[in-house]
Amino acid sequence: MKSYRDLDIYKESKRLAVEVHTLSLKLSKFELYEEGSQVRRSSKAVTAMVVEGYARKRYKADFIRYLTYAQAECDETIVHLDF
After folding, report:
1. Per-residue confidence in pLDDT tens, the chain, 83 aa
2. Residue 56 needs a FRET pair 20 to 30 A away by CA distance; which of 4, 18, 33, 34 works?
3. Residue 74, class by beta-carbon neighbours within 10 Å (0-12 exposed, 13-18 middle, 19+ buried)?
């Protein structure tokens, strides 16, 4: 594996972040700036945490920590989508 771009989790999290971003832009004007902004940030953070973890892959504990952060951001995104 040469890059984090080769990771399936990177590809899928990026695809979903783009999908969430696109869907969030269809919210009402009030929600677009409140809930929409938050869901866009948390969905993109999933991918960012995967990338940061990959960058620290030589340190197994750091890699696992960042994947745990990615899972937490994913859960946060789900909560915002539920609203």
Report:
1. 789 999 999 999 999 999 999 999 998 888 888 899 999 999 999 999 999 999 999 999 999 999 999 999 999 999 999 98
2. 18
3. middle
The domain spanning residue 45 has which CATH number?
A: 1.20.1440.60
For 52, the domain range is: 4-82
Does residue 24 contact residue 39 with C-beta atoms inside 8 Å?
yes
Q: How many domains does the chain have?
A: 1
Q: In whole angstroms, what is the distance from residue 48 CA to residue 25 CA?
A: 21
Q: In one letter, which amino acid is 66?
A: Y
Pair of tokens at residue 28: 């009402």
Other Cβ atoms closer than 10 A to 12: 13
